[in-house]
Amino acid sequence: MKHAKAQPRKLLAICPTAVARRLLWHCLSLDTVGLVAPEAHQAMEKPGVHLFWIVSGTGTLEAMGNRYALRPGNRIWFIDMTHPRIYRPADRQRLVKRGLRFGGPGLESWHEQFGGVNGAEFELEDPSSIHYGFREIWQISKRKSLNWEWRVHMSLTRILGELLTSRNILSPTRSEERRVG
Question: pTM here?
Answer without folding.
Answer: 0.90
